[in-house]
């Protein structure tokens, strides 16, 4: 039976019951475009912006910000392990840099400066982390096991650079799984970065560009895949990438960016033009959430409720982004129903959103 699912916004008599629902714009203390952001909880987070370059910090959910660093590109990308310890990559002039803070980003010490440019980083714990980038000729991956006191190259690839890197913090048989992206190619390691699979940009037999990825564990993950035919797909794997299942097709003309899941059910992705992609069932059905921002390509969720999106502006949610508006079919069931049925909505009684499940004998417009 094909199941058509839609969500209806309910009008609440009391605006105090669900204050500030959805994505609401927050004022940034400086201008620029967001290059990276991270929130370690619903209150504490950091954002880097370009043109000009600034690193800003909040400890009250973005209601107020302080500018901790300004005027240097060395904070292009960063990762905080906790509220005090963090690492950052970037450059000053022609030199690449790696920096470290032990007081929440107020002050930074320079760990490395030189001809290697590190474009991204991913840390497993306080001391062990990975950097990707280029030596000016070939892409590479470097590792530290002593908090940046020394950094050793463990992988070289005949790409000019490796752009993004992502490692899971949990280990499997004492090994760590990770992925890198560069020029639309994706590669995976199952032995802590010392060996990597052949880079690929072919998914389900189709050539394209892999724009973004997120993995919850070694088996379950999502990618944004663009075949350059009008928007990207979101696909999911449950077997470590051996197979990929389509979740959002090319009916969208907007690329999915910065995919982020906080558990097996709740996920979001940035995009452009006043919307955010969202799912509450692991991606079986994706829908849209409204924002006032034209561009939401950068997205960060601290938990199932608190999150931020933006690019040249910033919006914040305290209720998971609010209403998800979607109409879609259940991909797990293809039986044609014999008659029209309309089921009880859930949750019930009143909530800020509700799901109504119904069946129809053939595809048609429904209102």
Protein model, in words:
- There is one protein chain.
- The chain contains no helices and 33 strands.
- By secondary structure, it is mostly beta strands.
- The protein has a 4-stranded antiparallel beta sheet, with no helix packed on it.
- The protein is globular, with a radius of gyration of 22 Å.
- It starts with a strand and ends in an 8-residue tail after the last strand.
- 36% of the residues are buried.
Task: From the structure above, extract its key features.
single chain, about 375 residues, mainly beta, four-stranded antiparallel β-sheet, about 45% strand
- The span between the termini is 19 Å
Number of helices: 0
* Helix content class: under 10%
- Multimerization status: single chain
Name the average pLDDT.
87
The fraction of residues in strands falls at 35-45%
Report the principal-axis shape. globular
Short description:
With 367 residues, this protein is mainly β. It has strands spanning 4-9, 24-26, 33-39, 45-50, 54-58, 66-70, 77-80, 86-92, 95-101, 109-114, 117-123, 129-134, 139-144, 152-157, 164-167, 178-182, 185-189, 202-203, 206-207, 209-215, 221-226, 232-237, 245-248, 257-261, 267-270, 275-279, 287-290, 298-301, 307-310, 314-317, 327-329, 341-342, 353-359. Helix content is 0%, strand content 45%.
SSE order and pairing:
Layout: E1 4-9, E2 24-26, E3 33-39, E4 45-50, E5 54-58, E6 66-70, E7 77-80, E8 86-92, E9 95-101, E10 109-114, E11 117-123, E12 129-134, E13 139-144, E14 152-157, E15 164-167, E16 178-182, E17 185-189, E18 202-203, E19 206-207, E20 209-215, E21 221-226, E22 232-237, E23 245-248, E24 257-261, E25 267-270, E26 275-279, E27 287-290, E28 298-301, E29 307-310, E30 314-317, E31 327-329, E32 341-342, E33 353-359
Antiparallel strand pairs: 1-31, 1-33, 2-30, 3-4, 4-5, 5-6, 7-8, 8-9, 9-10, 11-12, 12-13, 13-14, 15-16, 16-17, 18-19, 20-21, 21-22, 22-23, 24-25, 25-26, 26-27, 28-29, 29-30, 32-33
């Amino acid at each position: 039976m094909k199941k058509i699912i839609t969500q209806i916004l309910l009008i609440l008599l009391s605006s105090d019951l669900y204050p500030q629902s959805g994505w609401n714009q927050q004022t940034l203390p400086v201008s620029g475009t967001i290059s990276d952001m991270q929130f370690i909880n619903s209150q504490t987070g950091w954002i880097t912006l370009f043109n000009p370059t600034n690193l800003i910090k909040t400890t009250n959910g973005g209601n107020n910000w302080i500018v901790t660093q300004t005027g240097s590109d060395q904070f292009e990308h960063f990762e905080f392990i906790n509220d005090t310890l963090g690492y950052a990559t970037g450059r000053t002039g022609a030199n690449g840099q790696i920096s470290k803070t032990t007081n929440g980003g107020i002050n930074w010490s320079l760990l490395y400066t030189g001809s290697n440019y590190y474009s991204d980083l991913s840390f497993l714990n306080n001391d062990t982390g990975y950097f990707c980038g280029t030596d000016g000729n070939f892409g590479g991956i470097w590792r530290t096991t002593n908090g940046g006191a020394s950094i050793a190259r463990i992988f070289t690839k005949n790409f000019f650079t490796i752009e993004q890197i992502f490692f899971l913090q949990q280990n499997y048989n004492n090994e760590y799984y990770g992925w890198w992206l560069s020029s639309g190619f994706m590669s995976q390691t199952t032995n802590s970065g010392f060996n990597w699979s052949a880079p690929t940009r072919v998914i389900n037999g189709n050539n394209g560009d892999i724009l973004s990825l997120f993995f919850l564990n070694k088996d379950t993950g999502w990618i944004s895949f663009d075949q350059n035919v009008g928007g990207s797909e979101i696909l999911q794997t449950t077997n470590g990438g051996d197979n990929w299942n389509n979740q959002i097709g090319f009916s969208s003309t907007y690329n999915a960016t910065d995919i982020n899941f906080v558990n097996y059910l709740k996920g979001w992705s940035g995009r452009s033009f006043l919307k955010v992609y969202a799912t509450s069932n692991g991606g079986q059905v994706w829908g849209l959430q409204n924002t006032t921002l034209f561009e939401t390509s950068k997205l960060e969720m601290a938990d199932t409720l608190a999150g931020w999106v933006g690019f040249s502006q910033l919006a914040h949610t305290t209720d998971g982004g609010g209403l998800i508006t979607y109409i879609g079919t259940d991909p797990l069931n293809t039986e044609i129903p014999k008659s029209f049925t309309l089921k009880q909505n859930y949750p019930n009684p009143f909530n800020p959103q509700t799901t109504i499940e119904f069946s129809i004998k053939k595809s048609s417009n429904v209102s």
